[in-house]
Fold:
Amino acid sequence: MRKLRLNKVVSRIGDLPAIPEVVTEVMDLTSDPNVSVSELSKLIERDPVLTAKLLKISNSAYYGMRQVVGTLKLALVILGVREVRNIVVGIAVLDTFRDEETEMLLGQHGLWRHSLLVAGMAKKLGAYLELSLQGEDFIAGLLHDIGKLVLWKQLGAEYRELYERAKRENIPLHQLEEDVLGFNHADAAAALAEAWNLPETLSFALGAHHRNNDRLQEEGPAPKLAALVRIANVAARDDFENHEAAELSSCTDERSWKALAADEQPLDIEARKEVLWGIKEEMSEIPSLSF
Ligand SMILES: [Fe+2]
Ligand SMILES: [Fe+2]
Structure:
């Protein structure tokens, strides 16, 4: 079924760009549990722009670390190999789809700020619930709408019109995408992640962020990660929804809150509101991060 979806997306949008070399190399190297920190830092340091972005993200208030990490080596010691890998992959994937055209979507249309908010909220909620996701929460949040960039880049004017129309007619974007294209930007993100062999947990969480009425979420490889992204996305207000309704629906997404609690009792609605509003308030004061 997964392959089918990938084929469907690719046949509609054409060949995807090649996976950035550094992603393949970092994924290969870190698949060895005994990878040496100095080997990995040598590999990442070959790209000084990427290294600078890694440090900028990990020191930003969105990431919310208590300690400043001034160097890549220190980042590897404090955050660990897996977390650094996740951030590097996230940045490199995002960068592949940034150009003059998509900059408009990220800037003018607010997708960058929205992505940062979802990333920070997912990470803070994950930390509050002590899920120990090692940065995967942040990156899944940062990349959750990468499918919009993929479609913007691959389909050009056709997608931009669809995007404008959703806004004008106040239709949820993912719904209009499904009507017109037969899949939505979450499917496009998952297809990209699968084509690039990114971690299955990540591709699952990206693909599930607008999926409402099936059991995929509980049965997939990363139900908690997917639930975090869904809640953070709605709480950060998505797809032209009304502000208050969005805030409320992030707390009433029973399926996601149950997934987060696993076998335990999920938080009650009041507790959900309290924690989400607290995080949101904190996040709203952070200036946007540019790079
Ligand atoms: Fe989305
Ligand atoms: Fe979103």
Remarks:
- Residues 18-96 form one domain.
- The mean pLDDT is 90.
- Residues 114, 118, 144-145, 233, 238 surround fe (ii) ion (ligand 2) (CB under 6 Å).
- Residues 23 and 89 are 6 Å apart (CA to CA).
